[in-house]
Write a sequence for this structure.
């Protein structure tokens, strides 16, 4: 399609989105051009704005447009607790529970040596700097809320090891049977963990 | 997230893409901001360009940046045949077969009264104008290649009715058993059609 370079370029650009293959990218491009050109312009503007103005919070590493994000700046949060999560989406899930009032550190990923993701890529040194910060002796507990996948567990393990000799409590979210589930349909590993961690 | 309006706006804008819900939009936004800011800028540029320069071919209604698309301008194409398809993707599928050398008309949709898509929305009047064009008496056959769905069949039926009294051959792609398939796994409607259309 020599006369259609910009359509071709749009399809290629859409493929850079995660989970979007050739067919989806074509469908998206056709949809925008046929039914929603205004949407294409809005999306272009939003991409430009976000790529230019969003960066990492100096304290918790999450996405923010300010120097320090609103959660870290909130004087009502309990500064003795620091919850370590993998992504802003995980942080949002924690927030929705309404059960946590402390601060966060967002790794923006998880250790995955096979994919070339090492401690530095997920800001582990920044996390340790923050925990060791002697100007903030108020921190008493680090809650590891990385995912219960192989990479998430490894990440939690590495952080635990790094904090082993420090006078700080390191906890992990409880593993167990999800609320509302029937034992019959819960996988065996989960039941075994729930049995060990019974109270 | 009062300090994160442009991230929020980006997620909302990504949701305008077909098949993208809140979770996918968040994942896309996080991916672009964390791993591929260059991709975000490339996509923004491609969207702007395409929204500004891509329009419909004056002859076949497909997307093009020129006045007339390259297929319609190609002097090697057989001008006695006109193949009617629903989308540029369907046209591309026809082209890949290498079995068709005529021209196309791309409806850019299908009749769907329940969704408020009428004849005018899919350019049916433009198609009929083109077929009736007395300056182009060379056209002898209209091949209906709309999809074999309820809407595609309706669209084909409406076009057939509109051309009933004209001195022009109207054909439909053959329905039948797909190449390479085993009868045992083919649905009954397809087998019944293949039986009726046997040759």
């Amino acid at each position: 399609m020599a006369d259609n370079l910009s359509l071709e370029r749009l399809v290629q650009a859409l493929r850079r989105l995660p989970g979007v293959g050739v067919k989806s990218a074509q469908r998206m491009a056709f949809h925008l051009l046929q039914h929603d050109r205004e949407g294409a312009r809005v999306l272009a503007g939003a991409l430009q704005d976000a790529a230019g103005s969003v960066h990492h919070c100096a304290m918790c590493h999450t996405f923010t447009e300010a120097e320090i994000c609103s959660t870290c700046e909130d004087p009502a949060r309990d500064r003795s607790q620091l919850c370590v999560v993998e992504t802003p989406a995980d942080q949002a899930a924690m927030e929705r529970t309404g059960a946590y009032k402390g601060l966060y550190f967002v790794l923006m990923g998880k250790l995955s040596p096979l994919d070339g993701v090492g401690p530095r890529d997920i800001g582990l040194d920044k996390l340790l700097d923050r925990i060791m910060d002697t100007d903030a002796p108020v921190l008493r507990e680090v809650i590891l809320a990385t995912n219960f996948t192989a990479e998430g567990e490894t990440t939690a393990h590495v952080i635990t090891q790094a904090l082993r000799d420090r006078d700080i409590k390191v906890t992990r979210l409880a593993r167990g049977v999800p609320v509302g589930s029937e034992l019959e349909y819960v996988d065996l590993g989960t039941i075994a963990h729930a049995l060990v961690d019974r109270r």
